[in-house]
Amino acid sequence: MKTYKQGSNNELLIINQRTSRKILINNVVLLKGDINYTTFYLQSGTEKVVAHTLKFFEEFLETYGFLRIHRSFMVNPTYISEYNAEKEILIMSNGQSANISRRRKHTLKDFVN
Questions:
Q1: Residues 111, 75: contact at Cβ < 8 Å?
Q2: Given CA atoms 16, 12, 40, 52 in this order, what sign does their dihedral have?
Q3: Where are the beta strands (DSSP E) in the chain?
C-alpha cells in the first residue's frame, strides 16, 4: 500500500496501482466490504470500488483513526452524524448507514467515551 503526502498535511491513498487511482484519506467517509471487493464512499458522494478485501486496508487506515465496527464496515469517526443504539447502526454525514456488530460495540463505546 502506498501513500503520498501532499503539502497541506493530507495523505493520498493509491487504491489501484494500474490505473493509479488516488483518493484523499480525509475524504473517505465509509468503507464497505463485500467478499473480495471494497467500496469507498467519499465525502463528495462518489463511490470507488476496489478489488481488495476490507482487511487489506484495515491496519493502514486504523493509524488514521478509522474504526472497524462490523465485518463489512469501517468508518471515519469524523463523519459520524448519528448513533442509533436501538437499531445498532451509525448514520454517516453522507446519509449512508453502517451496522455495528455485537462484538465490536465496545470499540465504538470506547471512542464515544
A1: no
A2: positive
A3: 3-5, 11-16, 21-24, 28-34, 37-42, 47-50, 67-68, 73-75, 80-84, 89-92, 97-99
Question: Long-range contacts: 2-9, Cβ < 8 Å, 24+?
Answer: none
CA gap 26, 42 in Å, rounded: 9
Q: Which CATH class is domain 3-112?
A: mainly beta
As a whole number of angstroms, the distance between CA 19 and CA 67 comes to 28
CA dihedral 53, 59, 64, 66 (to 10 degrees): 60
Three-state SS at 29: strand
Longest CA pairwise span in the chain (Å): 43
pTM of the model: 0.84
Q: Nearest 5°: phi and psi at 14?
A: -85, 115
pLDDT digits (tens, 9 = 90+) for 7-60: 444 676 766 666 667 788 889 999 999 999 999 999 999 998 988 899 988 988
